[in-house]
Amino acid sequence: MNTQLEKMKQKQECERRKRAAEEKHKEWVQKKREEERRERERKLSKEMAEKATKELEKMQLQEKAEEKEKERVAELQEKKARSEKIFKEWLHNARNKPRPLLYGYGFPHGKSAGLYFYYTYVVT
Protein backbone atom coordinates (compact mmCIF):
# COMPACT_ATOMS: atom_id res chain seq x y z
CA MET A 1 0.00 0.00 0.00
CA ASN A 2 2.87 2.23 0.70
CA THR A 3 4.22 1.63 -2.76
CA GLN A 4 0.85 2.42 -4.31
CA LEU A 5 0.66 5.62 -2.32
CA GLU A 6 4.19 6.46 -3.33
CA LYS A 7 3.41 5.71 -7.00
CA MET A 8 0.32 7.91 -6.82
CA LYS A 9 2.34 10.73 -5.28
CA GLN A 10 4.95 10.35 -7.99
CA LYS A 11 2.26 10.33 -10.64
CA GLN A 12 0.65 13.46 -9.17
CA GLU A 13 4.05 15.12 -8.90
CA CYS A 14 4.76 14.21 -12.52
CA GLU A 15 1.35 15.64 -13.59
CA ARG A 16 1.96 18.81 -11.58
CA ARG A 17 5.40 19.26 -13.16
CA LYS A 18 3.93 18.57 -16.58
CA ARG A 19 1.21 21.22 -16.06
CA ALA A 20 3.80 23.68 -14.73
CA ALA A 21 6.02 23.05 -17.76
CA GLU A 22 3.04 23.53 -20.10
CA GLU A 23 2.12 26.76 -18.26
CA LYS A 24 5.70 28.02 -18.57
CA HIS A 25 5.73 27.07 -22.24
CA LYS A 26 2.41 28.90 -22.83
CA GLU A 27 3.73 31.97 -21.01
CA TRP A 28 6.95 31.86 -23.02
CA VAL A 29 5.04 31.54 -26.32
CA GLN A 30 2.71 34.38 -25.31
CA LYS A 31 5.66 36.58 -24.30
CA LYS A 32 7.45 35.75 -27.57
CA ARG A 33 4.35 36.63 -29.62
CA GLU A 34 3.98 39.87 -27.68
CA GLU A 35 7.63 40.75 -28.37
CA GLU A 36 7.19 39.96 -32.06
CA ARG A 37 4.04 42.09 -32.19
CA ARG A 38 5.83 45.00 -30.50
CA GLU A 39 8.76 44.57 -32.89
CA ARG A 40 6.42 44.66 -35.90
CA GLU A 41 4.66 47.75 -34.53
CA ARG A 42 7.98 49.46 -33.88
CA LYS A 43 9.18 48.60 -37.38
CA LEU A 44 5.93 49.81 -38.90
CA SER A 45 6.02 53.08 -36.96
CA LYS A 46 9.67 53.57 -37.97
CA GLU A 47 8.80 52.96 -41.64
CA MET A 48 5.85 55.34 -41.38
CA ALA A 49 8.08 58.00 -39.82
CA GLU A 50 10.68 57.55 -42.57
CA LYS A 51 7.96 57.69 -45.21
CA ALA A 52 6.52 60.86 -43.68
CA THR A 53 9.99 62.39 -43.55
CA LYS A 54 10.60 61.55 -47.20
CA GLU A 55 7.22 62.98 -48.17
CA LEU A 56 8.00 66.15 -46.22
CA GLU A 57 11.39 66.48 -47.92
CA LYS A 58 9.77 65.85 -51.29
CA MET A 59 7.15 68.53 -50.62
CA GLN A 60 9.82 70.98 -49.49
CA LEU A 61 11.87 70.32 -52.62
CA GLN A 62 8.78 70.75 -54.78
CA GLU A 63 7.93 74.04 -53.05
CA LYS A 64 11.51 75.19 -53.51
CA ALA A 65 11.39 74.27 -57.21
CA GLU A 66 8.08 76.08 -57.65
CA GLU A 67 9.49 79.14 -55.90
CA LYS A 68 12.57 79.10 -58.15
CA GLU A 69 10.34 78.73 -61.20
CA LYS A 70 8.24 81.71 -60.09
CA GLU A 71 11.41 83.74 -59.55
CA ARG A 72 12.67 82.74 -62.99
CA VAL A 73 9.38 83.68 -64.65
CA ALA A 74 9.27 87.01 -62.77
CA GLU A 75 12.87 87.72 -63.76
CA LEU A 76 12.08 86.84 -67.37
CA GLN A 77 9.05 89.14 -67.39
CA GLU A 78 11.09 91.92 -65.82
CA LYS A 79 13.82 91.43 -68.41
CA LYS A 80 11.25 91.44 -71.21
CA ALA A 81 9.61 94.61 -69.89
CA ARG A 82 13.01 96.29 -69.52
CA SER A 83 14.07 95.34 -73.06
CA GLU A 84 10.73 96.49 -74.48
CA LYS A 85 11.09 99.82 -72.67
CA ILE A 86 14.62 100.25 -74.02
CA PHE A 87 13.41 99.35 -77.53
CA LYS A 88 10.59 101.90 -77.33
CA GLU A 89 13.04 104.55 -76.15
CA TRP A 90 15.38 103.69 -79.01
CA LEU A 91 12.48 103.79 -81.47
CA HIS A 92 11.36 107.17 -80.14
CA ASN A 93 14.92 108.52 -80.30
CA ALA A 94 15.43 107.06 -83.79
CA ARG A 95 12.42 108.99 -85.10
CA ASN A 96 13.71 112.24 -83.66
CA LYS A 97 17.32 111.80 -84.81
CA PRO A 98 18.53 114.04 -87.61
CA ARG A 99 18.73 112.13 -90.87
CA PRO A 100 22.10 111.68 -92.53
CA LEU A 101 22.73 113.55 -95.76
CA LEU A 102 21.61 111.60 -98.73
CA TYR A 103 24.79 112.09 -100.68
CA GLY A 104 27.18 111.98 -97.77
CA TYR A 105 30.96 112.36 -97.78
CA GLY A 106 30.57 115.97 -96.62
CA PHE A 107 30.30 117.32 -100.17
CA PRO A 108 27.22 119.00 -101.57
CA HIS A 109 25.37 116.49 -103.75
CA GLY A 110 28.09 113.93 -103.04
CA LYS A 111 30.63 115.57 -105.32
CA SER A 112 33.52 117.87 -104.60
CA ALA A 113 33.09 121.53 -105.45
CA GLY A 114 35.93 121.84 -107.88
CA LEU A 115 39.00 120.84 -105.89
CA TYR A 116 40.27 117.75 -107.58
CA PHE A 117 42.77 116.51 -105.10
CA TYR A 118 43.23 112.76 -105.27
CA TYR A 119 42.35 112.34 -101.57
CA THR A 120 39.04 114.09 -102.07
CA TYR A 121 37.96 112.31 -105.22
CA VAL A 122 34.88 110.25 -104.52
CA VAL A 123 34.48 106.95 -106.29
CA THR A 124 30.85 106.10 -106.82
UniProtKB/TrEMBL annotation:
This is CCD34 protein. PANTHER family: COILED-COIL DOMAIN-CONTAINING PROTEIN 34, NY-REN-41 ANTIGEN L15 -RELATED. Residues 1-73 are annotated as: Disordered. Residues 53-112 form the Coiled-coil domain. It comes from Corythaeola cristata (Great blue turaco). InterPro entries: CCDC34 (IPR045323), CCDC34/181 (IPR025259).
